[in-house]
Structure formats: C-alpha cells, structure tokens
Amino acid sequence: MHMLEHTNRVAVAKPKHPKQSDNDEETANLWSETGTTQPGPQSRATVAEELEVFPGCRAPLTTAPLALTVLKVLLGTVLVPLRIVLFVCVTTLFWLSVKVLVIGHKKDGALRGWRWACIDAVARTTSRALLLCCGYHWIHRSGRPADRETPTSHLPTLVSNHQSWTDPFAIMAMGHGCYGFLAMAELRKAPVLGVAARAVDGVFVDRTSEASRAAAAEALKRRMQDTSQSRVVVFPEAGTSDGSCLLQFRKGAFRPGLPLQPCLIRYPHRWYNQSWDSQSIWSHVFNILSSPHNRVSITFMPVYHPSPAEQADPALYADNLRKSMCEEWRRVYGCDIRESSLSMTEKRIYQKYRDGVYDWGECLRRLETQQVERGGK
Predict the structure, then answer these.
(1) DSSP bridge pairs for 359
(2) Alpha-carbon gap, residue 202 to 223, rounded angstroms
(3) Residues 6 or more apart from 139 whose CB is under 8 A from it?
(4) Which pLDDT value is given to residue 56?
(5) Is 265 helix (H, G, I), strand (E, B) or coil?
(6) Residue 157 backbone phi and psi in degrees, to 5
(7) Is the pTM above the cut of 0.85?
(8) What is the b/e burial string over 19-28, where b = at least 16 CB atoms within 10 angstroms of the residue's CB?
(9) Containing structural domain, residue 137
(10) Residues 117 and 244 in one domain
(11) Tens-digit pLDDT profile for residues 251-266
(12) Given this model, what pLDDT does residue 310 score?
C-alpha cells in the first residue's frame, strides 16, 4: 500500500486538529469547538504506529545479545580512543596537504593542472585511510564510474543513496578521479572538509533558502555541462535514511535533463546498524569506531539516459531513476528496499517527535499539512 494511504488511514482515527494559536486559551477554545480533546504533551504512539506511518525512519540500533553488546563496549574503550587519534592524524595531514596545494591559488576556484592531480591523489588516499580508521578494512565494489562517452561530453553526475557520513569517503576511495559534492552551506566554513570542498569546487546550498536552492540548481547545471570540471556527486534524498528505503528525491539534479549515473551504498550488518538514523552523531560515531570490523558495499550502475518525457518532467525522471535504483538494489544485494513516499522534510517532523519537541498528535498534523502542500506543488 502506498505510504500516503498508510498515513491517512492512521490519521483518520485521530481527532481533527484545529489551527494552533500562540494563546493557550484560544487553542483550548478551538479544540472544544471541534468536540474533541486536545492531546497533551504525553500523547505517544506505539512502535507499530510509528513504523506504519514513518517506514524506514526508525532503524533499531542493535539486535545483538546483551553479552555481545557488553563485549562491544569493552572493546570500544580501547578501539575508540585509538581510532580517534588515528582519525585526527590523518585529517590533519590531509588539511596540511590541501593548505600547501592552495598556496597562491584563488580562494574559491577549483584546482587545475598539477594541483588538481595532487589533490586527486591526496583525497583518494585520505578517504581510504579514514575508512580504515573506522574499521572498514575491505570495500566491495561492483561496476565503475563512467568515463566520458566522447572526448567533449560531460562526466555524468553520480546520484547516490545516503546512509552515513562515511558515504563520501567510500565514493572517493572506490571511484576514480576527484569529486565535487553538493553540500550544505555550513560545510563551506568547516576547518578540514570546507577547505577540501572549496578546492574541488563543491556546490553549496542553504536548504532553508529558496533563493539558495535555485542558485545551487543553476550552478549544478553549469557543472554538469562543463566538460573541464570534476564529476559532481549528489545525494538527492537530502539527508540520511536507514537503508530499508529510498526517500523522495529532490528534483535539482534532474532539472537539466542530462544523463546521470546511479550509485548504491550499503552497509551489511548482522547486529549493529551503521546507518546514521534516529540517533545522535556521538552515538553513531561510537557505534562505528567500537566495532572491530565494518563492511560497506558500493555499486556503480550504468549511466541512466532520460527519455524525452523524463527530460521534460524532473519529477518523473527522479521517480523512475529511484525505481531503477531499488530494482538494482534487490538484484545485486538480494534484499528488499522500499520506495518511501516520505520526503526528508517529513522525516524531520518525525525526528522532532522522537526528540520530544512534538507529541504524536502534533506530529501527525504537521505530516498531513506537509503532504498536502507537497501534493499541491
């Protein structure tokens, strides 16, 4: 059943929520006029309800026996400090290398010539070293990034699912050539990653600003058509999911109507879910660094050439590419993955419920409002 139908079915049983007011007395009167009871701050849902309305957003952190969890924590007391030290050393060397390479180069321009060749080698080597620091000793790769179809054609943009902050490292380590990423604007000023992102001419976007999103889409289009620049990587879900589904794709990468290369990243696990979903960054980092061995698989699919109908309709292009990625996921990895009707905006509503900002009634009300607004666009 379609996700929106799931949501409506659960929400129908809930009282109709009047428009909220900043005045508590006015809000209480609005509720009384509907003949219903305003839910209190303790209004909660069962796990079954959460999974039905928000599939793919509530990944269990662990299914391991207690004894194994205790052993993992004990190992973590040794592995985590050691790996943090190694991680800091590698990132420091990377930062120093980039700083040297950009001496005498204009601040916001991409590197070219010998500088580019050096940053390519440094970025790939550093990415692999950082994955080793995180316990990813072997990486399974199938397929390869596409080359130019002709000497004058553009390098197809990579479109990948997104599960963890380690995804860019896996792509850089297993691909060939350097990549510029479509990244959030806050990353531009980051001490290490910001320097690297600017060096490879990354595209930055403020997701809260309509003007910034439009400018990023235009910059992305120029990058996709410029044969002299590096390949761009886009995570169209605009955030991480738990690996059981693909969230709705944002349309920016699909508006130019150019060929794209889908990429699949999966973190096989038995006990400890490595996706960064419904947990804090510190919990996620400890979960990864305390594991003696982690696994990651990356699959580069063939280039997807849009039909004339898809070129004219970015939404159709995004939906069909997402379906193609799900089908390839099932074929390559032998496990199911769903096409969720949720967007990242709707997932963040659920995360606020999990953080205690909203109660369940308010969470459903905001979800319904968001889906109505999205359906009307």
Answers:
(1) none
(2) 10
(3) 131, 170, 173, 174, 296, 297, 298
(4) 60
(5) strand
(6) -65, 140
(7) no
(8) eeeeeeeeee
(9) 61-333
(10) yes
(11) 888 888 888 999 999 9
(12) 93
